[in-house]
Amino acid sequence: MREEETQQQSSSQQQGGFKRFVVRSARILFWIVTIIAVWWFLSSLLHGLPGPGDAFRAGLHAAKRASDAVYHWVEEDKLKEAAHRVRSEAVEHVPQDSVLSDVDKLTAERRARLPMRPLIGDSTLQAQLRSISKRPPIGGRLINILIIGIDSRLSARDARADALHLVTVNPDSAVVEIMSIPRDTYSDLGHPDTTTFNIIANAKTSDNKRLMRKVAEIARRGPVNYYAEVGFSQAMGIMEILGYRDPVKTLQFLRTRRTLPGGDIQRTHNQAVFMRQNLISKFPLLTGATGDMITTAALNFLTTNLSRDFCLGLIYTLQERGFPNHRDDAVRLRMPPGNNIRLLQMVADSLTIHNTLARVERRFGESDGAPDVASYLRRVYTRAMKDSARPGRMVYRLRRLNEQHAWLQVQDRHARSGIRDTLSGLLEYAYRELGQSGKADAVRNARKAEQLLIEQRILHQEP
């Protein structure tokens, strides 16, 4: 009896303690909500008083500055060593217009037989960017990184270069130049002149060596040693990470060339403007401890030959020289040497995106309806589950979709994470069954890196 009474007393005490905890928590929450509401009301009346959101963001910035200071104090020697390696890898280059590209080497007779006009021109920005784009190409010791936008359908094993942007960095002056190369730019790939195959988009190979060599010939900026591939799905993920509320429409705007006066040239330029806009506004977030985390995760997220140390060293070098605020032309835009073509400056804001896509729909009757990617991916991994006794077959079904990060095309975030975990988990299982633990670990690490990037969104407001 005494034991039962003791247990009842203990149970009643626990229940009473839990009730008191709930009541206290509710009171605290009530006062927090009340204070925020009063604060928000006063800030709307008094223009000099910052609102709760502004104060919260200021606190985040202060916390980042503090963490960056600690990070630089701890990692300073490693960062300086990485920056030294970056500067040592830069190649001396003097801009020379006398260097001949494939187009320059053509005789007049061969040019006349070409079925397409070489889409090359010199970008001229309007308004405040006009003077920047007219400045001469950067010279000195340069590092060239080729950004490759891949046009590949779901599960497709072949891909071609749909977008090409050569990012040239001078680590001494901390000036970045983005040269956008239209995909139909002529490049001698050895095909007959009567065909349409001699274009730079067809120069892509599995290791990208031929593509980098051909881009170097067109750009005349010295050798291209680094590349980063971005597929359709990864681009949508990047849009979301950057804080765009509707990644689908943003990407549609950047990919569209219909109704644009310059066609593919204007589309390529729009992509460069987008890159410049985000490089300038987001660069501070690539520094310090946060930048280390984002860089490490992004390298697992992309297909690239860039190393973590090289990227951190390059970022540190630019930061030490005050990039991007040290000069008004810190990020320049241009197109390959050639004709002067006047282009529009179209910033990827909500209004521009809406108006551009609306014109496309009115003229061509194309809506932004997206395919049901979630159902397709579920069907694929369901079939893969039935092949669990044949791991090689599972790898064949799932590998390409995993490389494409195809689930990023699913707009519902909860469904997307479930599909990602299931599909990549099955691929990891298949690799382990085949005794390929290295590939299994790579799949797992890429999954964790992507989850980290998506959860750590850089901004929560659309630029």
Explain what the structure shows:
There is one protein chain. β4 (160-170) and β5 (175-181) form a beta hairpin. It contains 16 helices and nine strands. It has helices spanning 2-45, 52-89, 102-105, 108-113, 130-133, 209-219, 232-241, 247-255, 264-282, 288-301, 308-320, 350-364, 373-386, 391-404, 413-433, 437-455, and strands at residues 91-93, 121-124, 140-151, 160-170, 175-181, 226-230, 303-304, 331-334, 339-342. α7 crosses α8 (247-255), α13 runs antiparallel to α14 (391-404) and α13 (373-386) packs parallel to α15 (413-433). Mean pLDDT is 78; it is low at 111-128 and 459-463. It folds into two domains: 90-364, 3-Layer(aba) Sandwich (Aminopeptidase), CATH 3.40.630; 373-455, no CATH class. The protein has 463 residues and is an alpha/beta fold. It is globular, with a radius of gyration of 27 Å. The longest helix is centred in the first third of the chain and has 44 residues, at 2-45. Strands 1, 3, 4, 5, 6, 7 and 8 form a seven-stranded mixed beta sheet that branches. The chain has a two-stranded parallel sheet with strand order 2-9. Helices cover 55% and strands 11% of the residues.
